[in-house]
Design goal:
alpha+beta; two-stranded antiparallel sheet; 13 strands; 41% helix; globular; binds adenosine monophosphate; binds magnesium ion
Length: 495
């Protein structure tokens, strides 16, 4: 496929073919004097867009909300959800506009503006997103992609001087996100809470036909059962969500706001707000300053995901009367998560294959890291140093160095049982333990520069985070322990 200009993209909007009650058609509210701060050529390639299309006036015009996407059909979608465990009723795209969908070389991508003005679902909000949170979303989704974690993507970051009131006055920005779909668990809860099984079925059929066609193939023994596709859908979403949780845990990512309206039906990381990649490790690390009870702490993420899946299952109950069948599917979560988590952690530890006895080894490391507040990313990355005669670089991350050294002896003894040559073990560990993650202070530095119109830090971070497992000469600072001021950064739901 030849690379295209923006006007050559063949956009459609299949979400708009759903009944009118699923959304509101409306124009975005553009920004005054918008400037393109950064555009992502990698994401552009996914929709077949030529790199030089990114610097055209049309590109800025469309992704600042001034002009519609040619061929698109702009709308804001409705959904509902549970926020912090409590039913919140109707929510919806309160500051996002779905522009349309573009078929790329490897599949379809919906393009969505975030921060593009009020919609009927804005509730008390102003429809805007501040520069700070927009930079954080833009960088984080690409960082997650670089780590190999399923996520929505980011195409463009447009800034302005328009004032936005948060705790202080900030400026408005618009980030363009891309995803095969932005449907959430809360999109399903919306119709079940309103007791509208027909609409719920329409949504479920839409999702299955477009994203989970294999769910139509009824399992053996279920032939002739028309509810089987919905049970299969719950199973598919359960599996993907369980795998996503294993990914998050393995890279020390905390989402921060795992409300059901932020849970992607495709098992993608969705809606980056007060997220955090952990610096000093705490099992109960809470990255969201607004989460006073720690509902979404790091160690609770898998169980919260399952709680959210129960809400989805509860919605699908309206289509599938067989509660036991739904429960049986949800019961698969734990095994899928545990298996994936063990596989990942085993690889991070440099083991050929996970064995049941490795649970204690892993648990003891996590406990040791927690007690010492050891840096998550460096602890894992430096494990491989121990195989190259540099044990100290690992042990120095712990206040209790003796305990760290004792634990390391156990790991080396365990690795020796595998009998693999050291270079192979080291290469394997380095391929799964990243050097670079989007630490809060790195995002903060990029934000500070962005406020002066300087996208240099965003650019540098994008390059490093795209290949986070490969050490780059001259970028040691980006792989180092955070500076003291990083501990003072507070991220909250304010965005
Ligand atoms: P979140 O938890 O950030 O994903 O947002 C929860 C709900 O609040 C969603 O329906 C958002 O669209 C909406 N929302 C958040 N911030 C704003 C805002 N500034 N203006 C309008 N709606 C917002
Ligand atoms: Mg959200």
């Amino acid at each position: 496929m030849n690379a295209l200009s923006l006007t050559e993209l063949q956009a459609v909007n299949s979400f708009a073919a759903l009944p009118a009650a699923f959304y509101t058609r409306l124009e975005p509210q553009g920004l005054n004097n918008p400037r393109l701060l950064h555009a992502n050529a990698d994401a552009a390639a996914l929709i077949g867009l030529a790199p030089d299309a990114l610097s055209t006036p049309e590109f800025l015009s469309v992704f600042s909300g001034a002009q519609p996407l040619p061929g698109g059909d702009t709308l804001a979608a409705v959904y509902s959800g549970h926020q912090f465990g409590i039913w919140a009723g109707q929510l919806g795209d309160g500051r996002a506009h779905l522009l349309g969908e573009v078929q790329g070389p490897q599949g379809g991508w919906e393009l969505q503006l975030k921060g593009s003005g009020m919609t009927p679902y804005s509730r008390m909000g102003d429809g805007r997103a501040v520069l700070r949170s927009s930079v954080r979303e833009y960088l984080a989704s690409e960082a997650m992609h670089g780590l190999g974690v399923p996520t929505t993507r980011a195409l463009a970051l447009v800034v302005s001087d328009d004032p936005v009131m948060r705790e202080t006055v900030e400026t408005a920005a618009i980030v363009t996100r891309m995803s095969p779909s932005f449907v959430r668990f809360g999109s399903f809860e919306h119709w079940s809470s309103r007791r509208q099984p027909d609409m719920l079925k329409t949504l479920a059929d839409y999702v299955i036909d477009r994203y989970y066609p294999e769910c139509r193939e009824t399992a053996v023994g279920e032939s002739g059962n028309e509810t089987a596709p919905y049970i299969n859908l719950l199973r598919a979403v359960t599996r993907r969500t369980a795998l996503l949780m294993a990914d998050w845990q393995a890279v020390g990512f905390c989402h921060g706001v795992m409300n059901t309206d932020n849970m992607s039906i495709l098992g993608l990381t969705l809606d980056y707000g007060p997220y955090g990649f952990m610096d000093g490790f705490r099992l109960g690390h809470v990255c969201n300053h607004s989460d006073s009870e720690g509902r979404y702490s790091w160690n609770r993420q898998p169980s919260v995901a399952l709680w959210n899946l129960y809400r989805l299952g509860g919605s699908l109950h309206m289509l599938v009367q067989d509660v036991e069948a739904l429960r049986a599917v949800l019961d698969e979560f734990e095994a899928v998560f545990t298996r994936a988590f063990h596989d990942k952690m085993g690889a991070k530890l440099g083991l050929a294959a996970w064995q049941p006895a490795d649970e204690a080894l892993l648990d003891d490391l996590l406990k040791l890291m927690d007690a010492n507040g050891a840096d998550f990313t460096l602890t894992w990355r430096r494990l491989a140093n121990a195989l190259q005669g540099q044990r100290r670089t690992f042990e120095d991350l712990f206040i209790d160095r003796t305990a760290a050294a004792d634990w390391l002896d156990r790991l080396l003894a365990r690795q020796a049982q595998d009998g693999r040559p050291a270079p192979e073990v080291i290469a394997g560990m380095n391929a799964v333990n990243p050097v670079y993650v989007l630490r809060n202070h790195l995002a903060e530095e990029a934000i500070r520069a962005a406020k002066t119109g300087d996208a240099g830090e965003i650019d540098t971070l994008m390059k490093l985070l795209r290949n986070p497992y490969v050490e780059q000469d001259g970028y040691e600072r980006y792989a180092a322990l955070p500076p003291d001021w990083a501990g003072g950064i507070e991220v909250s739901c304010s965005s």
